[in-house]
Amino acid sequence: MTQLDEKPEEGLKAGAIGFVDALVIGLNATSPAYSIAAVIGALVAIAGVHAPGIMLASFVPMLLIASAFFYLNKVDQDCGTTFSWVTRAMGPWAGWLGGWAITMTGVLVVGSLADVGVSFALRGVGLDSWADNAWVRQPLAVLLIIVMTAICVAGTEGSARLQNVLILAQVVFLLIFAAVAIYKVYADTSTLDSIKPAFDWLNPFAAGGAALTSGLLLGVFAYWGWESAVNLTEETEDSESAPGRAGVWSTIILLITYVGVAFAIVAYAGTKFLVENKDEEEFIFPLLAHEVLGNWDWIVFFAVATSAVASTQTTIIPASRTALSMARRNALPSTFGHIHPRFRTPDVSTWWVAAIAIGWYLIVNAISENALFDSLTALSLLIAFYYALTGVACAIYYRRHLTESIKNFLLIGLGPVVGATMLAWLLVESIRDMSDPDNSYSGVSWFGLGPPLVIGVGIALAGVLIMLYWRVVAPRFWDERAGVADPDLVHGKES
User: Fold this and answer.
1) To the nearest whole percent, how much of the chain has pLDDT over 70?
2) What is the pLDDT of residue 159?
3) pLDDT over threshold 50, residue 495
4) pTM (2 decimals)?
5) What's the CA gap between 314 and 21, in Å, rounded?
6) pLDDT in tens, 228-284
7) 178-189: per-residue pLDDT in tens?
8) Structural domain boundaries of the chain?
9) Fold of 19-474
10) Do 283 and 297 meet the contact criterion of CB atoms below 8 Å apart?
11) d(CA 340, CA 10)
């Protein structure tokens, strides 16, 4: 069986985007400005000046898993990525759960990203009272999700063009902020307790073992999302290698961005300011922006706004493509596999993801804003799970080829397994941390546990129940058997 067996003749639009487009989508899916703003305060509180080192350490498991994505995409260019690969390597049960985890990450985070995008855009133009008013902000966030979804459905080319503009704006804003901050540090004109950068800041072990563990949990969240580039594999030119390379390069560019901006922030603000404001989450950037840029602080507002808006769109992509892939394999109802006849995008699955994400956003917000933050904290469980699953699947699927060369053993076998082991360890640590209600945003107890853990476990149990139901009513998918990578595809021969 090759990777083409289940694909219909009228599938997604092949060759719609190129390597650079895929790379940009992978970068925007991580929402760099929003992510670094959301974690930097907590990282400094945990690791002090060694926060840049924590971001460096967090890069390691991401690069190892990106290697797994590259090699698995080489032999199976399926937009379902983890779902398809794990199914082929480990069987339908593990594959279905991997697909469920990817889909639900989109549902959990899209509403929050839209909310941040709207809030920062409003603040950037001086409409702070609108941003603080839930009756104004939430309808605008829903409208933004609908618009971004429509763009996704209208064609991958249009999505890519918009993403190119958004990443350019975001990177320019971040570079201006970092450059001015570093300049003022060395000019001794910082308004805060600045510190001259030191190479030792890159040593994550200097922060201490417990700090490294907690920091890695935050770092994984900051890097998450780069694999959106690979979910577009069926729509990318040179689909065997370009999407995988885009995923790998996304992680490398994110490393440079995160470490560079972290250096600038810690150097300019010092540790005291960042620790005192660690609970501000993404709003720590606006606090710093006025200190660094004065009346030009709107630059940072729009950096975070464009970051969140871009990620609102790109986060829908992996969820919708995974649902499409699952439907094509009879792992979900066939309606999710519908392709728009004109745009050749998965319109039904895309709108479903958006609708469920909007429902989740509104319902959880109705409970409390802290409950929304708790649902985002639960993301780390799903992320660590499906990343780790992919790393293990890579080694298993390629098991007959691991001893063919040192390169295969290190990049296809050992590396992904080490990355998966690190993420499994982080998963266990996350569960332990989330079990304590005091560690949640809400600070309340649900069934004696922290709300994020209850949400994560609830999503997992819901997935198991849906899987068991679908196993009974549509058992065809579960007839699939695990296999190994086709030698002809591994060695680049025509199959």
Assistant:
1) 94
2) 64
3) no
4) 0.89
5) 12
6) 889 888 888 888 888 899 989 988 888 888 888 888 888 988 888 877 776 666 677
7) 888 999 999 998
8) 19-474
9) Amino acid/polyamine transporter I (1.20.1740)
10) no
11) 10
| Single-letter amino acid, residue 322 | T
